[in-house]
Write a structure and sequence with these properties.
By secondary structure, the chain is mainly α. The chain has helices at 2-21, 24-33, 42-61, 64-87, 92-114, 119-139, 141-151, 159-179, 182-185, 188-205.
């Protein structure tokens, strides 16, 4: 079992880092055009919060794969957020979402440090928070699936992002099973399902109204 963990851990780390880097082209385009265009801000801020939660969970459970992966993740997301806020016009909604994320993290920190009296309970509650947010993030692509089924247009689905998320979710699911950690493998089940659903949409509808989007 230990050998399998040592094998799967770097795979999960590499795939997730690739997924984090997938936001770089959007930020380069924003900086080049000096406009955020139609790029949504919410995925950046949700990924930042999620990375910070899982980084903390990694520290408490001494899971170096989680620590390294999410340290890079929240650093990259912080860069993306700064670039986005710099060129967002108007900035009101963007700043409101940023403050909401900060208040959420501050509230979680105060609760976990002031009202939780054991490390085991802290790990459990932090894992629950991280799992819940991961479920929300993996559930949002299902909206893309519903839109494709409604319109027959697959342009809203990125093949590269779908592949990266599917492989990342699969590797973390396997690692979570090997570690017997339900907080890790549990929320990645919907990630696998949503990835399969998007692949199915690309297969069925890609020739209907538009070509597959690969960037």
């Amino acid at each position: 079992m230990g050998d399998l963990v040592q094998l799967v851990s770097p795979v999960a780390l590499t795939l997730t880092l690739c997924m984090f880097l997938a936001g770089m082209p959007s930020c380069i385009q924003i900086a080049k055009l000096r406009s955020v265009g139609n790029v949504p801000f919410l995925p950046f801020i949700m990924t930042e919060v999620n990375s910070l939660l899982w980084f903390s969970y990694g520290l408490l459970t001494s899971n170096w794969t989680l620590i390294i992966c999410n340290a890079v993740g929240f650093s990259l997301q912080a860069l993306y957020i700064v670039i986005y806020i710099t060129f967002a016009k108007p900035k009101t909604k963007t700043l409101q979402q940023t403050w909401a994320a900060f208040i959420f993290l501050l509230g979680a920190y105060v609760y976990l440090t002031r009202f939780v009296d054991s490390s085991e309970t802290m790990i459990s509650h932090l894992g629950l928070l991280g799992s819940s947010l991961t479920l929300m993030m993996y559930g949002s692509p299902l909206l893309e699936v519903m839109e494709v089924v409604r319109t027959g247009d697959t342009s809203c689905i990125s093949l590269i992002m779908t592949t990266a998320q599917m492989m990342s979710a699969s590797s973390w699911f396997l690692l979570g099973v090997l570690l017997n950690d339900g907080f890790i493998f549990g929320p990645n089940i919907p990630g696998i399902i949503s990835g399969l659903a998007r692949f199915l949409c690309l297969y069925i509808y890609s020739g209907a109204k538009s070509d597959i989007k690969v960037d």
